[in-house]
């Protein structure tokens, strides 16, 4: 009788899930990626007790009245079982613990940081097994105190825990860099009774070794298996061996005979992450998969044709005999569906099944819910479908069943909030730390340049969990907690007055990401909305995003939005919105993010020159070239020689100008420690060019950098590198390659240099062939410049037209309101102590007050009774002639000494009073000019009036007007004939004094 599989049921969220049995075998314990610890009273338990013990839980081990739980806090926490009261900490690591193993004398735990710690139960001694080259994936301990562990570097190590000696190393296993990405655990398992056998999966077979000689004893293979095996486990008595595959298949072998136990096919095609046998040895095992589901396999030890070992099976058979014939027929049909190998024995009853309509409907229902059944497969075969068609249907069903989780939102340059001391932001500007302990809940801001901003220490009353930091803005956000809505709080360091502003998210929106620059602040919510604010707190735009948001980044007027553009499969499909904010105008460009196969986005941001950059979990850093709309790989974590297999890089800054990446090397963990403060290091951009050991390839690398990256002095570097490559090609007798290089670069500034060099080394034929390229490149450059100029003119056409309209309106607009122009402070003209006193100072207009009597009571100016100084008029110091000064009155003289533009004039057309400006003259003579020049427009009329105005001015009048005090003129006074020139000594002598007596 084949074994039976229960349908896999939901236990935890999608992600790594582990399962184990209570030591008495009565309950199943499961832990998962959601941080929950669940106790199942059988697989059919609909309401298992659940306790959240962390953000993520990776492994659990129960024995006696204790249970050990490995969480993301990098510790192995002990709890009382089943009350789950804390009972101390067994191990501490620098990364999360991935697996645990135990026998009667030792407890071992392996971590992502490539270390294994072993604790002696007898004396409490603890020691480490170090110098591993990858994360620990799975472990098992034997009765003989041997410890076997599979490592991410593709090796299986076996130690003697008594002597701490490495006994054996097995290679050629699947390699993986991170435990979160592992599918093939290669889990070792010792034979439980004596411990003299060790089994481990490799590919599609399970290899059995002798622990004394380390010879291969046997290999178990399933010929029907289509995918590789991931885990394996011995039964409690060591007589059976079970293994799980990448597609969810369970393979069970009898260790003595090597015969495979047949059983049910999987319902879901998810990789098996853990297998564990029931300690009761009742033919039951529990399993978990990578989709957060758990299930069981039963009836493994019951064989067909033998008496049932369980009394419950006898009772079931007795009840089955009491059923009517129709029920027997139904059971036979269901068993036929479950046992495809016995389908031939039921051919005699096939005619009855075809005549039964209920059976047909049942098969249809099963086909709709569970996919094509074996019965329907037989019908398809009878109808003419061959085995290949059925294989196609099966593969389509597996493809639909397999699912992959999408990457969750994250803050670039931050560490997990579950840590008591974490980084909310660690970038090139400063560090924002969050301290969340029982005694303190605060936020500490430290700037790298303490001369620009001082540090900040805030009480975290709102429980902020996200932050963005720029040169002038600190933005903090908190989620929805305890009925309090999500808020954004910003502090502008460059503002004066009130520097802090805040906004509350409407409804039930929750902030999932925030970023800030010196000009904008952007907030992303779980409603797939982007809320854009200015740095001073003005709401700008609310933008909808076409997918789940992953991360944000900002730089000046630009910001990036990374979001899922498609459901995830083996890869994450993430797109990037590059948005530019200029005034209240937005411009967006959308590009796909080039993530490494099977990796996730770990960091996104801008370089110091404003180019978007992305770093993934596989260690690839890429930068976006906007002009070409392409991504360029600029660095790979594998190039860092000091990096270990379990080390990770924490990106701080990408400097495109200096070609360096500032980062923190995290030893054995993903994130840097808060205490002590990590020391950043700089690594140079390393483009994945071929054969960088030779001179030619190094020069080609420099040429690509100068052409595509915004390096310092890029044009100079390009010319120097191109000339060196040109010279190297000429040296190697590759003239065609030299010419091709010049034609590819297509720079008109490079042609004269290479022609001069070619002539110098007597490559006259090459120089002659390069000469015709110069006018071609110059013409191309001119065309490109014209295109750029046309685009610039097209963008600014509206602004230019508006400015022209404003200027023209300011020139031609008539203003009839009287203007009172007070003197600006400090514009009083200083007196000249060297000027000779003459009677001319009393001639003409000495002051507006002395001439106010000429206007009398008939003056239309209501301010004539005031003095000139009171209303801000300045008197003319001298006039060009006494006759002109005697004719003008204060009512007709403005601040410039000319004619008042606000009063009607009696002068005829075409006449110009000396000292009059062009605008008043043009307004007086506009009608006459229009009658004389009927076809002229406004601009032409102004030009004509200017010519006539200049022609009517007497010689020297324009220069005298230009030097008037109102115009701020500084023309020197001409000496009279009677003025004798004075020496410098005599001039200075006037400022001296003679002491009397």
Key words describing this protein structure:
nucleus; 19 helices; alpha+beta; single chain; Methylamine Dehydrogenase, Chain H
Task: Explain what the structure shows.
The structure is a single chain. Among the domains are: 4-16 and 99-298, Methylamine Dehydrogenase, Chain H; 421-644, YVTN repeat-like/Quinoprotein amine dehydrogenase (Methylamine Dehydrogenase, Chain H, 7 Propeller), CATH 2.130.10; 696-785. Helices cover 22% and strands 29% of the residues. The strands form 13 sheets. Strands 1, 2, 27, 28 and 29 form a five-stranded antiparallel beta sheet that branches. Strands 3-4-5-6 form a four-stranded antiparallel beta sheet, with no helix packed on it. Strands 7-8-9-10 form a four-stranded antiparallel beta sheet, with no helix packed on it. β35 (473-478) and β36 form a beta hairpin. α7 runs antiparallel to α8. The radius of gyration is 45 Å and the shape is elongated.
Q: What is the secondary structure topology, with strand pairs?
A:
Blueprint: E1 4-5, E2 9-10, E3 18-21, E4 28-31, E5 36-40, E6 50-52, E7 57-63, E8 66-71, E9 75-80, E10 86-92, E11 97-102, E12 106-111, E13 116-120, E14 126-129, E15 136-141, E16 146-151, E17 155-160, E18 165-170, E19 189-190, E20 197-202, E21 205-210, E22 216-221, E23 229-234, E24 240-245, E25 250-254, E26 260-261, E27 272-277, E28 285-289, E29 293-298, H1 311-321, H2 325-338, H3 350-355, H4 357-370, H5 374-382, H6 387-401, E30 421-426, E31 430-436, E32 441-447, E33 456-459, E34 466-469, E35 473-478, E36 487-492, E37 500-504, E38 511-516, E39 520-525, E40 529-534, E41 539-544, E42 549-555, E43 558-564, E44 574-582, E45 585-592, E46 601-606, E47 612-616, E48 620-625, E49 630-636, E50 648-655, E51 660-666, E52 681-684, H7 695-708, H8 714-731, H9 735-745, H10 751-760, H11 764-770, H12 773-812, H13 868-871, H14 882-887, H15 918-924, H16 926-932, H17 938-952, H18 957-962, H19 984-989
Antiparallel strand pairs: 1-29, 2-29, 3-4, 4-5, 5-6, 7-8, 8-9, 9-10, 11-12, 12-13, 13-14, 15-16, 16-17, 17-18, 19-20, 20-21, 21-22, 23-24, 24-25, 25-26, 27-28, 28-29, 30-31, 31-32, 32-33, 34-35, 35-36, 36-37, 38-39, 39-40, 40-41, 42-43, 43-44, 44-45, 46-47, 47-48, 48-49, 50-51, 51-52
